[in-house]
Amino acid sequence: MSIPTPPPSAESGKRSRRKEARPGELLDAALDLFVEKGFAATRVEEVAARAGVSKGTLFLYFPSKLELFKAVVRHNIAGRFDEWKLEMQAFEGSSSELLHYCFFVWWERIGSTKASGITKLILSEAGNFPEVASFYRKEVIDAGQELIRQILRRGMDSGEFRKVDLDYAIYIVLAPMIFLMTWRHSIGMCVPDELELTPEEYIRLQVDNMLHGLCACQKPSSPPPTF
Amino acid sequence: MSIPTPPPSAESGKRSRRKEARPGELLDAALDLFVEKGFAATRVEEVAARAGVSKGTLFLYFPSKLELFKAVVRHNIAGRFDEWKLEMQAFEGSSSELLHYCFFVWWERIGSTKASGITKLILSEAGNFPEVASFYRKEVIDAGQELIRQILRRGMDSGEFRKVDLDYAIYIVLAPMIFLMTWRHSIGMCVPDELELTPEEYIRLQVDNMLHGLCACQKPSSPPPTF
Amino acid sequence: MSIPTPPPSAESGKRSRRKEARPGELLDAALDLFVEKGFAATRVEEVAARAGVSKGTLFLYFPSKLELFKAVVRHNIAGRFDEWKLEMQAFEGSSSELLHYCFFVWWERIGSTKASGITKLILSEAGNFPEVASFYRKEVIDAGQELIRQILRRGMDSGEFRKVDLDYAIYIVLAPMIFLMTWRHSIGMCVPDELELTPEEYIRLQVDNMLHGLCACQKPSSPPPTF
Amino acid sequence: MSIPTPPPSAESGKRSRRKEARPGELLDAALDLFVEKGFAATRVEEVAARAGVSKGTLFLYFPSKLELFKAVVRHNIAGRFDEWKLEMQAFEGSSSELLHYCFFVWWERIGSTKASGITKLILSEAGNFPEVASFYRKEVIDAGQELIRQILRRGMDSGEFRKVDLDYAIYIVLAPMIFLMTWRHSIGMCVPDELELTPEEYIRLQVDNMLHGLCACQKPSSPPPTF
DNA sequence: CATGAATGAGCTTTCATTCAT
DNA sequence: AATGAATGAAAGCTCATTCAT
């Protein structure tokens, strides 16, 4: 009315910051809920509510629930692998130590964070959204497997690791990680603290055994039996 | 084709024979669809159609979709562990061989069959049906873990395996199994034959490495570093 | 097998008696359930079960649920009015006494029996099945009203009762009856014995007041006010 | 037709005005249909359609069909009794006149309006929804009975009425009312104008007889006979 | 941009009715 | 005649999506 010009910097600044933050808040809320309840059981209204906006607003930013889901996946796989790769190449210790290092870094940055929920989510919904799954496989899994492959090759090249078929050996490293993420987001949530198992100790033992095996004896000279 | 009339004797009592077969047919159909699409995305009408009956018929045998789900889980975990336990106790080879043996038996009886889909299903839906998940944990997971525990203890008692914390070590054995089931029913379905990896070879290498480790060197005397 | 001829009279007699009793048993079961739960909330399977036959058998005797309903109504209004009429014509006491008498006879034969449920049922379902309702009105209500009309006329002719418009006066007698049946089969069932009101005392007081009115004073000479 | 643009000012806020009107419109539609067809035979889609909205909209305001039913009952018994009580206490005529007055007021405000359908509805559905019935009994019936009780006590205290057992006498007043409501919403709808009976004349005669009785003779000195 | 009332397709579940045995 | 397994048309309810404000 009679107020000539409202201070444009303060108000509009706060508002536009809010506005630009919207998609991110929605993605965070959606991540939480998708991980917690699955795609089908998550209602868009809940997502909107948790992000503090109305249902209509969500559809302003994402044209459908499925697109929101895709965006959540895409948003949470920001190329973490590049920096990781660099760290690995700069690593100066033994390959055993590198393996240890990578496991704990993975735990810190992925395994223990919300990002782990994404993996569980994808594995759960892969059947319903193959395109999302194969997108994830290409963008995330393959990059991770490549990283693992490099670590193993490094160890084998230096003579520290035995020679094994890399295409299969990567799963020796991958399996304990995927298992831990899957477990903690499903069955693990049912009986939380019964035995007080800690992920850290789980990882320590997995890596230790991955390197040295269960056998107390010397390295095998004969191939194992087949049934 | 040229057979004009199907043997009428076999047809007599067709209806009553079907009646006894119905629950099984429905459970099989439901297993397929639940595993393929998840609980929520599976429509009961689809289940009925795949079992060759109408929607209403399904509800003649199962009072609700959730009860159908529970029945599927229950039906597919019929006490397999008892015979398994006996086989294991009768086993006369080394503990390494026993571990090998168990893995391949597991693959034959569970891993490669539809039963593996159940595990994937449970892990996916655990968040939505905690009661089902904790039922499964008690009935299946715990029994499996006990079996693994016995194998490891056998090896440790005989001096064949190193001494490790059993509560964690069981996951050394469990993780590759769960991972394989999860993987094949999700991401693994997206890129089927790309690299021609076979589950058998996966298992062989996992067990081999589980026993002997990646390290070419002698057994460790010093604890691994922590980061 | 080798038994030449089973006694046909005993066995087949029992069976055919059974067979002929079927519709009646079904009608009884249906009456109970329709009265108790209403038409819509009664499942034909329940009716069959209570009658001790299968669902299919019911449809052998009654082509549809609606026809069953109609049959129930028809079956339960057997011309009781004829004998009643005779009793009334033979009655030798005063008209007041006749009114009393009729009320208590009605209570004994209708009000306190399952037959009262029919009336309540018809009143409840009249909106859904007008044809049933108007059939009931013609066959039952009108006959009852005619009976009441005769009683009142008898009293007026003898000078025992005041002159009143018979078309309306019949409701003075009908209302307490219908009300009692309706009440006992609905609201009355919620708070059964709170005050220990007995139908007999209810009837006694209704008839008494119907005859003598609430006023302690003499009969009115002036018409009542209108608002 | 020739009006090109409807006045925009009146249209502004149309949606929000409707929002406030919706529950009332739905309750009105539901009242009509429940009374007309009963609870079970009324489909929520019909209710919605009659209120001019879609099925989903109804569930925006009422979480289930049963809650809608309860709301209909609750909405139509808004404390009418308070004002009524005051009117009654302020009444200055004789108790006979008061009784007359109350009957006609009841007819004007309840009996002849849609509210009377509620009573019929409750009586019909009492068996299926005991909680609703007993809620209604407490909130409505009991309040009504209390009112009747006061009128009768007033007459008895002043010596205008004979002494009668109040617990039973209230039904002398209640029965003609309940009967009329039940009748008009059931059987009465089948043969609408056959005899041109008017509710007003029905009430007039009921009250008149309630006060003075059928007997042309003096007040009774001997108790009536029992059979 | 943001809202949230409104929509209606779609799903689970019920149950009168049919019909092969 | 009797059975009861099978059917499928409804009905209640949910929720992603739209759109007037």
UniProtKB/TrEMBL annotation, chains A, B, C, D:
Region described as Disordered: spans on this chain: 1-21
The keyword Chloroplast is annotated on this UniProt entry: no
Coiled-coil region(s): none
PROSITE patterns: HTH_TETR_2
Pfam families (alphabetical): TetR_C_11 (PF16859), TetR_N (PF00440)
Span of domain HTH tetR-type: 20-80
Record keywords: DNA-binding, Transcription, Transcription regulation
Feature: DNA-binding region: 43-62
GO molecular function, one term: DNA-binding transcription factor activity
InterPro entries tied to this protein: Homeodomain-like_sf, HTH-type_TetR-like_transc_reg, HTH_TetR, Tet_transcr_reg_TetR-rel_C_sf, TetR_C
PANTHER family membership: HTH-TYPE TRANSCRIPTIONAL REGULATOR RUTR (PTHR30055), HTH-TYPE TRANSCRIPTIONAL REGULATOR UIDR (PTHR30055:SF223)
Protein name (Swiss-Prot/TrEMBL): DNA-binding transcriptional regulator, AcrR family
